[in-house]
Amino acid sequence: MALIKNFKIQNEPEAKALHNEPQGVFISTYGCQMNVNDSERMYSLLEMLNFTSVPQPQDAALIIINSCSVRERPVHKVHSEVGRYRKLKEKNPGLKIGVGGCVGQQEKSKLFKDVPLVDFVFGPDNIDDLPQLVTSCFVNSDVKLMGSKFKHQDPYHVETLIRSTPVAAFVNITKGCDNFCTFCVVPFTRGRERSRPYKHLIKDIQSLVERGVKEVTLLGQNVNSYKSDCGVCFPELLKGIALETDIERIRYTTSHPKDFNEELMKVSAEHQDKICDYIHLPVQSGNSEVLERMNRGYSRKDYIEKVKMIRNYMPTVSLSTDIIVGFPGETDEQFEETLSLVEEVDYESIYAFMYSPRPFTKAARYEDQLTREQKSERLQRLFKQHELKAFAKAKEYEGQILDILVETYDEKLQNLKGRSTQNKVTYFAGGPELVGKTLAVKINKAFPQTLRGERVTL
Ligand code: SF4
């Protein structure tokens, strides 16, 4: 079987015929919001080729695994998921299976050898080539196709694609990362950092508003290092979006503590009617030596000072974080410092993971790796400590009246689901005509992850 990297469509009449009939596509998404947004873009691009999304892989003519290599055993996960489709492929040899995302970028053509059922592979920088790649794959069925070239030189001019009219949409503002944290594979799978031009972003967001979007989440590996072609930095971008577009709510993720500055806080306080009262600020560890070995660029003290500054400008802010436990060389005492930092900062939610070595990264070569048992024991301790605290914090919302932007209506339960500006998922009774509206909701009961309330008139 031949391998083609330059996937020009070989036979145009066949390609046209291919897209005359609607066909099903199923995308399985792993990982972060960036990947969720990438999958949405893939669906939108494939819709232009007459593919429609189907809820089950057995109804699909095309299956794409949008993989993530940030956590453990990513290739193994791709392998076992593709294995589950073996029977479908036997029944329908025309079924095409593609692997995108970070594993696609990292493994490239090696995946064809390791997982022979895969027909095509592509990386995050090649999503916009997907229509051509898929068409070529269907037309030239005896070849394996690959698109995983970085496009560092190309201007980063993507336009946000949405299929229906969601209430909330993700908008990429940067791509890639230059930070090289020693545990992270992203700079190797998503390439160097690039920012979208300011004017394009403003236009893009206003056009989403005109299609009914009420809330945008600005996405980047490190949104705080956004720098546009005309020198606009992240706080100025936020200000511009608040003033020059009619968007109702603005969120952003992910922030890097080293680049998080007071100017951003001033803009957030000035535009608190639009900028959400929620910040995700990954700390990764509570110990300064571990942070240094992670190449994070801040100490425990720096981080705590940033948190104080945030609370000074945004007293009701909801904070969340990412934590890695069991980084190579992390001692019991150093881990205790993570526990004490979590206690001190008083997060509403934490996303914690056991360290696992990633290819190409510096930390994977550190000699003092911890055992799985050590890492797992620390993770359990962290979760246990935070569980009760998080629930107690959620309980503080009981009796409060929150502004909830309604995102969806569940017909079966006749329930509305929305989010507060603090990013708390809230359920309450109401009809579908309320989707897209921001309503005052009194919180009656808090659960560990969600809130329940009732609509009130003020
Ligand atoms: S900032 Fe660090 S953890 Fe985040 S994407 Fe960049 S290298 Fe990875």
- Percent of residues in helices comes to 25-40%
Beta-strand proportion: 15-25%
What number of structural domains do the residues give? Answer: 4
Mean pLDDT: 91
Query: For the record, what is the CATH homologous superfamily label of the largest domain?
Result: Methylthiotransferase, N-terminal domain
Which sheet architecture does the biggest sheet show? 7 strands, parallel
CATH class of the largest domain: Alpha Beta
Please characterize this protein's 3D structure.
It is a single chain. The model has no long low-confidence stretch (mean pLDDT 91). This protein has 15 helices and 20 strands. It folds into four domains: 2-147, Methylthiotransferase, N-terminal domain (Rossmann fold), CATH 3.40.50.12160; 156-265, Transcription Regulator spoIIAA, CATH 3.30.750.210; 277-395, Transcription Regulator spoIIAA (2-Layer Sandwich), CATH 3.30.750.200; 401-455, Nucleic acid-binding proteins (OB fold (Dihydrolipoamide Acetyltransferase, E2P), Beta Barrel). The protein has helices spanning 12-18, 33-47, 74-84, 86-91, 101-107, 110-114, 130-139, 186-189, 198-210, 234-244, 262-270, 288-293, 300-313, 332-345, 372-395; strands at 2-4, 23-29, 51-53, 62-67, 96-100, 120-122, 143-147, 168-172, 174-175, 194-195, 215-219, 249-253, 278-280, 318-325, 349-354, 401-410, 415-419, 425-429, 438-446, 450-455. It starts with a strand and ends with a strand. Strand 11 (215-219), helix 10 and strand 12 (249-253) form a beta-alpha-beta unit. The protein binds iron/sulfur cluster (SF4). Residues 177, 179-181, 184, 186-187, 221-222, 256 line the site of iron/sulfur cluster (SF4).
